[in-house]
Design brief:
heterodimer, A: about 700 residues, alpha/beta, Beta-Lactamase, Alpha-Beta Plaits, five-stranded parallel β-sheet, 25 helices, elongated, B: about 120 residues, Four Helix Bundle (Hemerythrin (Met), subunit A), 5 helices, about 75% helix
Chain lengths: ~700, ~120
């Protein structure tokens, strides 16, 4: 705000006495006074001294006050430069002429001295206020420009919507472009965030509260901006909301800086791989996550062998080139469940999660080892360099993220000490397990090719009729060295490695051919039960595969009973139901195995085209214990009410048989009648079974 | 003759004007009054001359200027008489302007007396 001493006043009057009086009075108040005797002189002084206010007589020689005022107004604004006419002509026309010529106000002569200075002071005050306001607006506007702060206003009374120049600029709108309503502003939000912004506004409107949210805007020129939008309700004196004012701040640069800082803090500058910090964070996060899912996380630490020696002989630049090259090879292993990091100097870390089998764990180690098969090119040299890998598995080897990482580092050092170019697990147990798995897997591959997997047949008897109705074909591994390998030693690995598919195919084919052969030899028309794995429903046309095997062996489809487990029924429902229906259409029967163990609801099971429910052996053995077979009885009752057949597995004792028969379960499978038999022994079993039955009947 | 013209009942000095003016101008009051008093007679002479030659325009200009400064000092009767003359001159309807100029001269003498008293 100007002080009196800083204020220039131009006094224009041809009457020396009046001009001097006015000047003197104002001088006494400290103002700077400039005097002119006519309009022409006034214009000259206006241009040279830039007065803050002009007091001007109307009637003057050379150029009167009206003409001078008009001229001055060509380059001045009434709010910035008040012109007060000192006029003795106090008729309406004179006043009108004065105002039309650009005067701001008029003071009649004779001048009322009591009020004179106040009038001048008031005019100057108004002018200074305007200047101050304008300055504030300019400063605000500059601040808004600097802060990239736009604003909008929505009147709740007449629904008018307006935006500031800064917001217009943020949206890349032209100066005359307006947005008609708030929803027009929402239309500028990123398409994926429009719904969020809209619902935020709707919530704010209905609750009468403000809101604050970060979102992206797409400006008219398609520039994407990050903005922080903050809106508040403005109330009138009675507390009634009258408008909403919104502030929109462009935080794109802030976001970008945050992103750069985050990247620098979490990524290695040389390779752009996640650094130790980010890797550790991710391992910790996934360990916590896997705890909830009973999952596992594997950490691999891989160090390039003898890199220090190389650095000394070829220089650090060459070492960096090798590190960058190895990093880019590692990146090729990248997938959703893998995190790769440059952990420190020459050590890289890899985390594997959500893996389905142990083979994947060793497979990844093999893949990392294989990355160094090709040499690294340094200038014209080809450098061969190996890698030592340490592996630690959470929760098998260690029970925390940090310990798992440390375990992998220790294992890596051991691998390096043993000469490098290899991988070692943190624990001996894991090393041994890996070795065994690898051996079994390799053996299985060979065994399938060599036909070492054969079906054994466990008879199924209808105890009511005394007839052998069929058998379940069960895989056995006739290992040339280890002998007969039980299923629990290889089925899981077969499932994990996908070997279950060729293995099952081999078993099915042999079982179908054998069943057909026994029919042809008139040993009996038996149903053969085959077990399907969930893997066979994934990306395989199991229906077509079975049909091909039936055609190849000549076994009628009506002699096949397809068994799925209850746990399978709980997953991939639609896909499995579809395939099972195809089997049904060609006359096969469907059984659900291990029933009662998979927590399926009855209503869920009803969706499947099931003919027979197989009571799991655990419920059958329960008949002889305290439980008295309550569950078995319930399953029998339930199956009967659903019109399904029921067969009991694992029947071993007379009391179990009696109880099952007493409750209407006539179909029996188990050691009570026979263990699973090799094909060679089955015909003898059949003969003996019927012979014994005949003897029994004769004795009766 | 003075009864034929208005303003005879007005005082020469308007105290409501003079008093604050003295306060505002302080020591400069007397100086500015002297300026007025010394600049008034030559212009009065010009006014008389214009009256003699019946120069309406000059009478208008001179009466306007003298009126303004007279009013500013609170010489209310002088102001009113000059204003009356200016008014008639502006309407080009001057009646007895020689008499009016005489009254203005008389009133100026009266102001001189009053100012001397004061």
């Amino acid at each position: 705000m100007l002080t009196n001493e800083q204020t220039n006043i131009l006094v224009v009057d041809d009457d020396n006495v009046t001009r001097h009086m006015v000047s003197r009075i104002l001088k006494n108040s400290g103002y700077n006074i400039f005097e002119a005797v006519n309009g022409k002189e006034a214009i000259e002084l206006y241009n040279s001294v830039s007065p803050h206010i002009i007091l001007m007589d109307v009637m003057m020689p050379v150029m009167d006050g009206y003409a001078a005022s008009k001229k001055i107004r060509e380059s001045s604004n009434p709010l910035e430069l008040p012109i007060i006419m000192l006029t003795g002509l106090d008729d309406v026309e004179s006043v009108k002429s004065a105002l039309e010529s650009g005067a701001t106000d008029f003071i009649s002569k004779p001048i009322n001295w009591l009020l004179f200075e106040q009038r001048v002071h008031y005019a100057l005050h108004a002018r200074n206020m305007h200047e101050e306001l304008q300055g504030q607006q300019i400063r605000l506007s500059q601040a808004q420009d600097i802060a990239k702060l736009g604003s909008w206003e929505l009147s709740l009374e007449d629904n008018t919507f307006s935006i500031s120049d800064q917001l217009r600029s943020l949206l890349d709108l032209s100066p005359d472009e307006e947005l008609e309503q708030l929803s027009s502003l929402v239309d500028f939000a990123h398409p994926s965030e429009q719904e969020t912004v809209r619902s935020c506004i709707v919530d704010a409107m209905s609750n009468g509260t403000g809101y604050q949210l970060e979102h992206r805007l797409i400006a008219k020129d398609n520039t994407e901006l990050y903005v922080l939008q903050h809106a508040e309700f403005i109330n009138d004196r009675t507390g009634h909301p009258v408008k909403i004012i919104g502030i929109v701040q462009d935080i794109t640069e802030l976001k970008s800086s945050q992103s750069i800082i985050h990247h620098q803090n979490h990524y290695d500058l040389l390779t752009d791989l996640p650094n130790r910090r980010l890797f550790t964070e991710k391992v910790i996060k996934d360990v916590v996550h896997s705890k909830d899912k009973n999952g596992s996380v594997v950490v691999y630490m891989a160090t390039l062998d003898n890199i220090r020696n190389l650095s000394e002989s070829l220089g650090y630049k060459a070492t960096e080139t090798i590190l960058v090259s190895f990093a880019s090879r590692l990146k090729e292993l990248q997938s959703d469940n893998i995190v790769i990091s440059r952990f420190n100097d020459s050590t890289f870390a890899v985390m594997l999660k959500d893996f389905s089998d142990f083979a994947r764990v060793t497979g990844m180690a093999e893949s990392i080892l294989n990355l160094t098969i090709e040499p690294f090119n340094i200038d014209t040299h080809e450098i061969f360099i190996s890698v030592s890998i340490g592996i630690s598995i959470y929760p098998v080897d260690n029970n925390s993220a940090e310990a798992t990482i440390l375990g992998a580092e220790n294992a890596m050092l051991n691998a390096s000490k043993e000469g490098g170019g290899r991988y070692l697990f943190y624990s001996e147990h894991s090393n041994k397990q890996a070795q065994e798995r690898l051996e079994i897997e390799n053996d299985m591959r060979k065994g399938i090719e060599r036909g070492e997997f054969i079906p054994h047949f466990q008879p199924q008897i209808n105890a009511a009729t005394g007839k052998i109705t069929g058998f379940e074909a069960l895989a056995r591994w006739q290992h040339p060295i280890k002998g007969l390998v039980p299923p629990f030693k290889f089925i899981d690995i077969a499932e994990q490695t996908g070997l279950i598919i060729p293995l099952s195919k081999s078993i099915f084919e042999q079982a179908f051919a054998q069943t057909k052969q026994w029919a042809d030899e008139e040993l009996g028309i038996f149903k053969v039960g085959i077990n399907l794995s969930i893997k066979q429903f994934s990306g395989n046309d199991i229906y077509e595969d079975i049909k091909v095997l039936l055609n190849k062996t000549g076994l009628p489809s009506s002699q096949v009973d397809v068994e799925i487990t209850e746990s399978m029924a709980a997953t991939k429902t639609d896909e499995i139901i579809h395939v099972l229906q195809q089997f049904k259409e060609i006359g096969m029967e469907i059984s659900i195995d291990d029933f009662g163990t998979g927590y399926s609801s009855l209503s869920h099971i009803q969706n499947f085209p099931i003919d027979t429910i197989k009571i799991d052996r655990s419920f059958v053995s329960d008949i002889d214990s305290l439980g008295e077979g309550l569950i078995a009885k319930t399953i029998i009752a339930m199956s009967t009410s659903l019109g399904m057949d029921v067969i009991a597995e694992g029947v071993e004792t007379t009391s179990q048989l009696d109880m099952l028969l007493a409750h209407g379960c006539n179909n029996i499978q188990g050691y009570y009648f026979s263990k699973p038999l090799p094909a060679s022994e089955f015909p003898d079993f059949v003969s003996k079974f019927y012979e014994d039955s005949k003897l029994k009947r004769e004795n009766i | 003759m003075s009864e034929q013209y208005p303003f005879a009942g007005l005082p020469s000095l308007d105290d409501e004007v003079v008093r604050p003016l003295k306060e505002l101008l302080g020591e400069h009051f007397a100086e500015l009054v002297n300026d007025f008093i010394s600049s008034f007679p030559p212009q009065l002479d010009e006014l008389k001359s214009a009256s003699r030659t019946n120069d309406v325009n000059s009478m208008l200009q001179i009466s306007h200027t003298l009126k303004s400064s007279s009013g500013s000092f609170g010489f209310i009767r002088l102001f009113k008489r000059l204003e009356y003359l200016e008014h008639q001159a502006r309407k080009n309807n001057l009646v007895n302007h020689a008499d009016q100029v005489k009254l203005i001269d008389d009133e100026f003498q009266c102001v001189l007396e009053k100012m001397n008293i004061n």
